Amino acid sequence: QAVVDFERLGEHAAAFQGHDVGFCCLGTTRARAGADGFIRVDRDYVAQAAELARAGGCKHFVLQSSRGANAQSPFLYLRVKGEVENLVQAVGFDHCTILRPALLLCKRQESRPMEWIAQQFFGAVACVFPTANSVPVETVARAMVACVLQPGKEKVKVLENKAIHELGKA
């Protein structure tokens, strides 16, 4: 495990050397970092990490994005997620898997009251429609590993929420 300073990521290129697979779940919130900080973390840091990973020999990059990601979205969050998906794909990995989970069901250390309410609601909905609007983080993690252990032939593969559930339970 290597600890890096994302503000000087280029100085940590050695940490990205010699890995066949890269997993990226990096992200923050607009509330925590402000709009500019959110863009810097969720787009710029991720894109730079992908470039360093590719330069270091990474063949398969797995990116956790978000349901609804779209570089043309009028909503900052979805637009930034779409932009970073495009940037990561452009790096030129042999394989690039993008996971677009819906609401992540998890326990957080920081307080996010609105997210907690959404998790309670969608957690209950998941009892009836398990793949509709949410996914446990453990399922996302298993799906990320499974897509590397069972790579397809396609250069870029995008997994939406239902496919994440299926792969994460296989």
From TrEMBL:
Locate the NAD(P)-binding domain: which residues?
Answer: 4-151
Q: Which InterPro entries match?
A: NAD(P)-bd_dom, NAD(P)-bd_dom_sf
Q: Name one GO biological process term.
A: import into nucleus
**One Gene Ontology molecular-function label:** catalytic activity
Assigned GO CC terms: cytoplasm
Instruction: Provide the assembly information.
Output: Monomer. Forms homodimers during oxidative stress. Interacts (via N-terminus) with elongation factor EEF1A1 (via middle-region); the interaction is direct and competes with EEF1A1 binding to guanyl-nucleotide exchange factor EEF1B2, thereby inhibiting GDP for GTP exchange and reactivation of EEF1A1. Interacts with nuclear transport receptors XPO4, IPO5/RANBP5, IPO7, IPO9 and KPNB1 as well as GCN1L1/GCN1 and LRPPRC probably through their HEAT repeats. Binds NCOA5/CIA.
- Protein name listed in UniProt: Protein HTATIP2
Organism, as annotated: Pycnonotus jocosus
Name the gene for this chain. Htatip2
